[in-house]
């Protein structure tokens, strides 16, 4: 067994031991399911399995587990900082690759969707390395790049993963010339459309790292706020400072310390 497999096994064990998963508590009632089908009658439904959510660390779905509680704290802080200011478009970025932007964006979206009356749209705006669909185990036939390049409509691309009040606009193909496309009029139109069409809705953009390409800097122009992920023990302070310097003048509303080692005696997870 590799170290990663061992860690994952430990994680699953800790999550399930912390509180046995109660499907009735996390699944929508029949009435709520009807609500979903009315609200998303044009949206493709691709049910995500609990095993996929667990395997890909989308642990905010599993109520009352230690990790879900951490995401709840994050969500509550975020709501406090954004709701009154009418901020509903947020992007998640970080300094470098692999620090947990997509996992954080997806968990935050799930956690927000669990909030009463809060609907959430999660957009995979990492045109170079789209991964939100993989995290949810989805196989979209089209994605954001088809909206940007092939004139597909937003409605044609939306997927509901079977989590109440959550909708996903996935990515699919990787784009190399992503920066030009991110800066295109069509991308601006997308943000304008989703922001104004769904004023009551939180829209979370998963994005590439700041030191990787200019895309996040462009995206930062369109959104109301930025959530900046820092990987514990990996990202060096000068790199973080450089990334934050690049984002200077943009609205960084908070930082998430990700992959914080578990402290067993306090039952903290990250
Ligand atoms: N809190 C966490 N604890 C443990 N592993 C994590 C955590 N968050 C993310 N990971 C793992 O780290 C890896 C990278 O996560 P993720 O894809 O979210 O990063 P990213 O910043 O979006 O990467 P990229 O820059 O490639 O888009 C994945 O294997 C993911 O499962
Ligand atoms: Mg990512």
Topology:
Elements: H1 3-18, H2 23-26, H3 30-39, E1 44-45, H4 50-55, H5 66-82, E2 89-94, H6 101-113, E3 119-124, H7 132-135, H8 144-150, H9 154-157, E4 159-160, E5 166-169, H10 178-182, H11 185-197, E6 201-206, H12 215-222, E7 225-231, H13 237-246, E8 252-258
Helix pairs in contact: 5-6
The structure holds adenosine-5'-triphosphate and magnesium ion.
Characterise this structure:
The chain has 270 residues and is an alpha/beta fold. Strand 7, helix 13 and strand 8 form a beta-alpha-beta unit. The protein is globular, with a radius of gyration of 18 Å. Helix 5 packs across helix 6. Helix content is 43%, strand content 15%. It has helices at residues 3-18, 23-26, 30-39, 50-55, 66-82, 101-113, 132-135, 144-150, 154-157, 178-182, 185-197, 215-222, 237-246, and strands spanning 44-45, 89-94, 119-124, 159-160, 166-169, 201-206, 225-231, 252-258. It has a six-stranded parallel β-sheet, with helices on both faces. It is built from 13 helices and eight strands. The longest helix has 17 residues, at 66-82. It has a single domain, classed as Rossmann fold (3-Layer(aba) Sandwich). The structure holds adenosine-5'-triphosphate and magnesium ion. Residues 101-102, 126, 131, 206 line the site of magnesium ion.
């Amino acid at each position: 067994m590799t170290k990663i497999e061992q860690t994952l096994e430990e994680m699953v064990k800790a999550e399930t031991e912390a509180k046995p998963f109660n499907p009735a508590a996390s699944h929508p009632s029949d009435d709520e399911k009807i609500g979903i089908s009315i609200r998303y009658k044009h949206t493709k439904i691709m049910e995500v399995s609990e095993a996929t959510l667990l395997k890909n660390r989308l642990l905010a779905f599993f109520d009352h587990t230690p990790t879900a509680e951490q995401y709840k704290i994050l969500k509550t802080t975020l709501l406090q900082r954004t709701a009154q200011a009418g901020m509903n478009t947020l992007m998640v970025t970080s300094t470098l690759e692999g620090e947990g932007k997509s996992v954080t964006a997806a968990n935050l979206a799930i956690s927000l969707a669990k909030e009463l009356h809060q609907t959430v749209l999660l957009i995979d705006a990492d045109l170079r390395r789209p991964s939100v669909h993989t995290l949810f185990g989805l196989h979209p036939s089209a994605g954001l790049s088809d909206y940007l390049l092939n004139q597909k409509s937003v409605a044609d691309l939306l997927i509901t993963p079977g989590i109440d009040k959550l909708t996903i606009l996935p990515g699919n193909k990787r784009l190399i010339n992503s920066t030009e496309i991110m800066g295109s009029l069509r991308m601006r139109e997308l943000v304008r459309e989703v922001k104004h069409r769904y004023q009551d809705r939180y829209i979370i953009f998963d994005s590439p790292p700041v030191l990787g390409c200019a895309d996040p800097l462009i995206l930062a122009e369109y959104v109301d706020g930025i959530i900046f992920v820092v990987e514990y023990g990996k990202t060096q302070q000068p790199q973080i400072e450089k990334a934050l310097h690049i984002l200077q003048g943009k609205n960084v509303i908070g930082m998430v310390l990700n992959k914080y080692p578990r402290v067993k005696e306090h039952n903290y997870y990250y």
